[in-house]
Structures are given as C-alpha cells and as structure tokens.
Task: structure prediction
Amino acid sequence: MLKIKNLHASIDDKAILKGINLEVKPGEVHAIMGPNGSGKSTLASVIAGKDEFEVTKGSILFENEDIQELDPEERAHKGIFLSFQYPIEIPGVTVTNFIKTAINETRKAQGLEEMPANEMLKKIREKSDFLEINRKFLSRSLNEGFSGGEKKRNEIFQMAMLEPKLAILDETDSGLDIDALRVVANGVNKLKSKDNAVIVITHYQRLLEYIVPDFVHVLHNGKIVKSGTKELAHELESKGYDWIKEEVTA
Result:
C-alpha cells in the first residue's frame, strides 16, 4: 500500500529525514517511535503532503503510484488520512457539516455524485453509535471548546466516516487521560480491516497496549535505525532510547 524508499526531506534548508525506508501492507499496523526531534511528525507530514517540507531525495509510492507531486487534498481523496497532534478549532463549522463537505469533496474527486442526505445521516448515526459519540457533540463547532479527549475522538469519528485506506495517527495519545486513550484506541481497533492500514506515531508504549502493532520502528536522527515487533516497544519503555543511540553510534 505504502512504499517509501530512501526518503530525504528538509524544512528551511535543514535536513530532517535522512533516508527513510518503510513498507506498509494492507491489514498492517505500524508504530513509529523515537525521541523528540527524531523526525516522526515530519514523516507523517511529508506522507500527507504538507508543503512546508521539501522532499530532496527518494520516493513515496501509494498503491504503486508516485504521490510526491500531489497536493494534500489529492492525497486525501486517494485515501490517506492524517490525524493531527493538535487539531485546530474552526468556529461556525459544525462537526456534521465539516464531515459532509469532506466526504462529498472526495466523492467529487472520484467522479461520484454527492452522497444522498438520508444515506449521509444513516452513516453519521451508525458511526457515532459505533464510537459511542453523543449526537449533541456532532452539532458543535469543530474542535471549539473541545477537551483533548473530545478533539481526538472527533478525529477518529472523521476517520470512521472517511474510511481511508491509510490512516496516520500523529501522537494521538498526547494529553489524553487513560479513559480517553481507551476510547480512541477502541475506535481505531474497530476500524481496522484487511483492506486498510494504520501508522501510529507515539512517544509512549502505553498506546500500544491498546492498539497492538504488527511492527515497531525506531526513528533516530531522521532514519529508521531499528525495527521489531511489539516487544521492542516494551524494551523502549523499560530502557529508554539511550541504548538505541549507543547502538547507532557504535
């Protein structure tokens, strides 16, 4: 589904990604961990197409198509979803109106008619019940006055409605208490299937207790320096990252 080869990227002429290689297949969950400043969020942003980052070398293939020249919305229409670390507030735009617009723009890009109102309403009801979201929540302005947990739950609701092929969760666990973490993880687990894939970017092993990864990759200084199974995440939790840094420089 996603194949990244020797990816280098910079911002303001400062190199951040320095040769990333990563392959993600349908049905897989990949966790990307690493110390602050290692390039985790940059990698998410580059896959999603944020234009402040410049790809200087390498390739990103999504379903065997080179997507480097595509705008973020074109990548989204092809099925790439990025959950933000800090979702922004959009006063005056309700959660429901936002999601209706997002779905219909994607359908338009795919040459489809707008989703009929009754079908949209049915889907909204199904997904909100599925994720245990109060319907009143859906009539509120997007993220305005939301708690950290509500913002993250809203992102998972968007993911459920858009049904992306590849979901990238960028530090979705930041600022969440254990109950909110469970709700978010439960939503992600319910949405997993053999046809989609998830990349979870996190500092902490605790999220991976709830969203169990098939693969764990450690990013350090712009490169994936170690890969393994969920046991690697446990090792990082108990030993920190210093041993990885020592291994790399040895």
Observations:
- The radius of gyration is 18 Å.
- The longest helix spans residues 95-109.
- The chain has one domain: 25-48+71-249.
- DSSP finds nine helices and twelve strands in the chain.
